[in-house]
Amino acid sequence: MATLLFAEHDDASLNPVTARALTAALALGAPVHVLVVGENARPAAEAAAKLEGVAEVLLADAPVYAHRLAEPVASLGVALAAQYDALVAPSTAVWKSVLPRIAALIDVMQVSDAVAVIAPDIFERPIYAGNAIQRVRVRDAKKVVTIRTAAFAATGEGGSAPIRAITPADAPAGTLFVGEQIAASERPDLTAARIIVSGGRAVGSAENFAKVIEPLADALGAAVGASRAAVDAGYAPNDWQVGQTGKVVAPDLYVAVGISGAIQHLAGMKDSKVIVAINKDEDAPIFSVADFGLVGDLFQLVPELTAEIAKAKA
Amino acid sequence: MKILVPVKRVVDYNVKIRVKPDGSGVELANVKMSMNPFDEIAIEEALRLKEAGKATEVIAVSIGPVKTDETIRTALAMGADRGIWVKTDEAGIEPLTVAKILRKIVEAEGPGLVILGKQAIDDDANQTGQMLSALLGWPQATFASKVVVGEGKIDVTREIDGGLQTLELALPAVLTTDLRLNEPRYASLPNIMKAKKKPIEEKSAADLGIDLSPRLEVLSTLEPAGRTAGKKVGSVAELVGDLKQAGVI
Ligand SMILES: Cc1cc2nc3c(=O)[nH]c(=O)nc-3n(C[C@H](O)[C@H](O)[C@H](O)COP(=O)(O)OP(=O)(O)OC[C@H]3O[C@@H](n4cnc5c(N)ncnc54)[C@H](O)[C@@H]3O)c2cc1C
Ligand SMILES: Nc1ncnc2c1ncn2[C@@H]1O[C@H](COP(=O)(O)O)[C@@H](O)[C@H]1O
């Protein structure tokens, strides 16, 4: 039997984390079908069809799937589940909300946030904010797995899978979409960025994020992240939070500015390839994971670094 | 309306856990335990709704072995009215099983709202609320950062990738809390004393007819790939040189 991969997308385009989750799905060894569910989502389905190794794309395109509300999307997943051995999705806000519903309705215990596929029924996943890795075997007949996409490389393009439209399943009532505030940004997405510059409590204000952190990010072509303390204080929007309960990232370069390095923050970034820490406290725990540490005042060092990088790139 | 709040007893968030050298699990002997931080937020939200006249009673429920009643007591000291303790021999009951137990409790108690944490900081599963909602056939809103209760419905603002989303749910419903929903209160000394007299009803999984055997077999628990401290650089220029050499800029 095949594996069903749930695509992360916004109808108009496919989110790059899908190609990473595909790598994990292919590791299960069975043919992979990709489900694109949404409203006016054909462009995303066409992008999914181009991914290498995809056998078929299922497109469930209907008004009931606008905004991918958990209840109707889970009903569709349950309706499709009989034809699949494994249901796999990236660990994004949408699929974290949907997949456990499907798992419960087909009576399967889900594996959350898999970071390695050891065998088709054996996975590794972090527990305790990544301070331990658990290796688990699924004893249920089917597998329901969410994927920590930062742990997998993206599968490339070059495929041309057929797209098959499927009809909506019965959807439960009870939830109504009221509105959404999505920040538009020119910068790369946190979960897809090659470089991330993150600011902590020490940045001090939203104005300082704009004046100090963002210019460095722009000089590097980086996404901007934040610690929970910075988000809670209102210096940065919630979707910038990196950590155990925010986004988990593993870019080539992570620059932590004025962040102490609490375990909950490290859980979200310690698998980055190169880590730079800028902190005035030479004993800050962040230095224990940093490849390069710069001790000093961020308000002096970051503008200097921004200028130096601009010079190096010129 | 009654509000049911499932609270989990977990290793305190300040403790840096250690993996046992033989790979058999995590060292839990003599480790400080606390209520899962997201569940404190759930209790706080329930109490605020009660204080605002939107709810009549707040019930804390926990599933776990000896000493789990301490965690329920913490909820009672914060202000919950009564507790339910589903006693088990072991800790670490899987989310699917917890959700099945909670369904039975919901059927018996008939709450209008169940508020759970979005994730337990020990298993980091992020499943139980969604599973409970699915089993009950009730609407769900995960990762709540703002809750407004209306007549027979509830508006919930949720933290999603890229920003915020607002949903309207028909009651009864299931919510899971995100960090920014509220700032939980501390229990005052008089309230801690009062909590000692509040009732905690004990039940067993067998009474509820739920099989506790796990579906996932834990083969081993491993130390994560370590990371060692690199070097401190003396200047911004040196840093840029090192980053170039590392090939990241
Ligand atoms: C359940 C739970 C979940 C959590 N999840 C997350 C999460 O997902 N992500 C997360 O980040 N946190 C999370 N936290 C919070 C975490 O425990 C820390 O409180 C938080 O990460 C601290 O943020 P910070 O490093 O910005 O602030 P602080 O710890 O206050 O550190 C500020 C740092 O800035 C330095 N500094 C001060 N002034 C300057 C200056 N002028 N120049 C340079 N350096 C300076 C200081 O030396 C200090 O090291 C969670 C906590 C709990 C309980
Ligand atoms: N053993 C338990 N007892 C009570 N509540 C629990 C238990 N396990 C999980 N929960 C609830 O489910 C939430 C999510 O847990 P999890 O799905 O394990 O990440 C927690 O924040 C609690 O509200």
Summarize the structure.
Helices cover 26% and strands 28% of the residues of chain A. Chain A has 8 helices and 16 strands. Chain B is built from 7 helices and 13 strands.
What does this structure look like?
The complex is a heterodimer of chains A (about 325) and B (about 250). Chain A is α/β, with parallel strands linked by helices. Chain A folds into two domains: about 1-165, Rossmann fold (3-Layer(aba) Sandwich), CATH 3.40.50.620; about 195-314, TPP-binding domain (Rossmann fold). Chain A contains eight helices and 16 strands. A seven-stranded parallel beta sheet of chain A has the order 5-9-4-1-2-3-10, with helices on both faces. In chain A, strand 2, helix 2 (about 40-50) and strand 3 (about 55-60) form a beta-alpha-beta unit. In chain A, helix 3 crosses helix 4 and helix 5 (about 205-220) packs parallel to helix 8 (about 300-314). Chain A is globular. In chain A, about 60% of the residues are buried. With about 250 residues, chain B is of the alpha/beta class. Chain B has one domain: HUPs (Rossmann fold, 3-Layer(aba) Sandwich). The longest helix of chain B is centred in the first third of the chain and has 15 residues, at about 35-50. Chain B is globular and about 65 Å long. Chains A and B meet through helix 3, helix 4, strand 5, strand 7 and strand 8 of A and helix 3, helix 4, strand 7, strand 8 and strand 9 of B. The structure holds flavin-adenine dinucleotide (FAD) and adenosine monophosphate (AMP).
